[in-house]
Amino acid sequence: MMRRKLILGNWKMYKTSSQARSDFLRLGELTKQFSSTIDIGVAAASTHLAPMAECAPAHLGLLAQNCHWEKEGAFTGEVSSEMLRDLSVQGSLVAHSERRQFFGESNLSAGKRVRALLDAGLDAVYCVGETLSQREAGELKKVLTKQLLEAFDAAGNGFSSLLIGSDPTRPRFSIAYEPVWAIGTGKAANAIEAQEAHAFVREVLTERFGAQAASRLRILYGGSVKPANIAEFLKCPDVDGALVGGASLKPEEFAELCSKVTKF
Length: 264
Ligand code: PGA
Known about the structure:
Elements: E1 6-10, H1 17-31, E2 39-43, H2 46-55, E3 60-64, H3 81-86, E4 91-94, H4 97-103, H5 107-119, E5 123-128, H6 132-136, H7 140-155, E6 173-177, H8 191-209, H9 211-216, E7 218-222, H10 230-234, E8 241-244, H11 251-261
Parallel strand pairs: 1-2, 1-8, 2-3, 3-4, 4-5, 5-6, 6-7, 7-8
The structure holds 2-phosphoglycolic acid (PGA).
């Protein structure tokens, strides 16, 4: 099954909202020509979402970096799926490793966030990945299994029926495999390591949701992806795109990276 490639930029806590707006527009101009072959989006800080949504180029997805599981309530500092939907934001990252590391994100809270997004008809990109010490202790598969299954359990009954949504070529749910030791370090995983982890994630998805759903869901690689190394990841059969931090910040560099993806 051919999966449409998905490239997401993660702008983290960078840019002012006016910079984010103008960079988004510029990225739109530079990538328009790729829009028939690949899906491209950007996950931006909450303050940037409204101004970016107002000018969003039609072919670019706009995502948040986090989303609470309740529709509203006394949850200071959080935003809800309703608030995102109201701005025409397409979805959100969930449980990025920086959320896990610095803000106490757990597999349980992540699963609830994913569920709220899918229930609202939005996209959820669930981030998983091992630390260096876990990898060195041979715990890669154990860590990934726990991150995936605990979140799926927390997402509750009927979760599997929400994974794909109305367009099977653009499933609502995606996984980003991001080895923590490769994020922002300049030390990307190699293609063999990435493929091994991605194939394992797909195995877990197959066991849980069946072969058909698992063959449609997109698994992105993240961690020091740049124009110079994106091709080696995309050669891997189970790598369906990338979540890109540093190399997504400059529209020219990110567009160059996207142009390489159209070759696959
Ligand atoms: P990086 O970040 O590309 O700068 O390593 C990736 C991410 O955090 O999603």
